[in-house]
Amino acid sequence: MKAGLYVHFPFCAAKCPYCHFYSVPWSAGGARLWREGLEREAAAAAAEGLRFDTLYLGGGTPSLLEPGELAAVVGGLQERLDLDPVELTVEVNPSGGRTGFLQGWRDAGVTRLSVGVQSFDDGVLKTLGRDYAAAEALRFCRAAREAGFDALALDLMIGVPGETPLAVERTLAPLLELDPDHVSVYFLESLEGLPFAEVLERRPVDEDAAVDNFARAAGALAEAGLPRYEISNFARRGKECRHNLKYWRYEPFLGLGPSASSHVGRRRWTNRPAIEEWAEGVRTQGSARADTVELDDRTLAREALVFGLRLVEGVDRASLLERTGADAFALYAGEIEELTAEGLLARAGDRLWMPPDKLLVSNAILSRFL
């Protein structure tokens, strides 16, 4: 089974007030430190003996990389790892200043562009603290569509203070006009300790209205030929994110860069988040793992169930057994029986899934396995 490779680019021009991913302001010195550390970490990681068929550059804002820099990063990874990506995703910010990079990124091997639009409504963008207007984001996305990437993926945010049904419509109309291959729709969450938490305190969100807005978006996407395949993700058939499917199907993945996480066999680990500490660990020890967890059968089974049940297709008993070596259906027979009896899960033989109308309360359902 081939693995997925994730690379964390830890730099942003400015930190979004709702973002909980590790990032620092871009600097030439920091970028050089990251690039050198990435090459060392990749060289050491070759010992894992993994073969990779997906590469995902996340952040941070990887679109700060010019095409030549991106090509050098990808080439450096391929020199050190068995990497032949059939899918190469880069997260980008829809700033007009990066439109000129689109063809160069494609020439560098990028097959899938993941654009963090969040909204095409100026009021929502202002609330989120984004540094672009809706018209600018739309122009960038049109140019990205015309550039000919294998897949154009757009990210939206629902449940923003002040969001109205009209604001959602103002986002959905141009989004559907773009004919995207993939759309992710996320609720604002995990904001504790972030600047945006203060905004929510002053302007609390009506949760029922947010759920209605999500349902409106989900319905429009389904009608446009983008069915839901995961709790927050919609795609045309064959355009699902192959890299992220590895997470949900509990397949191996390796993360490089500050704060990146990995799961290989019965081990899971996360890198140190601070770029200086990460770079020093990689320089002196070949890795910068903050912690490594050895997974027993019950943990493997639980995690495989929890991740797999996020998918509309659900989980298959034999596949879980093959991937983990643990019989999840037997180890969690009691919980599965209770949840199916309550109508919170559905089962047919050795296949288990979450009913579509229960996906938005998935956290409460999946917590029963914890």
Task: Summarize the structure in words.
- The protein is α/β, with parallel strands linked by helices.
- The protein has 2 domains: 3-246, TIM Barrel (Alpha-Beta Barrel); 297-369, Arc Repressor Mutant, subunit A, CATH 1.10.10.
- The protein is built from 15 helices and 17 strands.
- It has helices at 28-45, 67-80, 102-107, 122-128, 134-147, 165-177, 196-202, 207-223, 242-248, 275-285, 297-308, 317-324, 328-331, 333-341, 362-366, and strands spanning 3-9, 11-12, 24-25, 51-59, 82-92, 112-118, 151-158, 182-187, 228-230, 233-235, 253-256, 261-264, 267-271, 289-294, 315-316, 346-348, 351-353.
- The strands form 4 sheets. Strands 9-10-8-7-6-5-4-1-11 form a 9-stranded mixed sheet, sandwiched between helices.
Number of helices: 15
**Uncertain segments:** none
The oligomerization state is: single chain
CATH homologous superfamily caption of the largest domain: Aldolase class I
What number of structural domains do the residues give? 2
Q: Which percent range fits the helix content?
A: 40-55%
**Strand line-up in the sheet with most strands:** 9-10-8-7-6-5-4-1-11
Shape: globular
Report the CATH architecture of the largest domain.
Answer: Alpha-Beta Barrel
What composes the largest sheet? Answer: 9 strands, mixed
CATH class of the largest domain: Alpha Beta
Mean pLDDT: 95
User: Might you state the CATH topology name of the largest domain?
Assistant: TIM Barrel
Strand content: 15-25%
The strand count comes to 17
**Strand-pairing-aware structural class:** alpha/beta
Terminal residue distance = 28 Å
Evaluate the radius of gyration: 21 Å
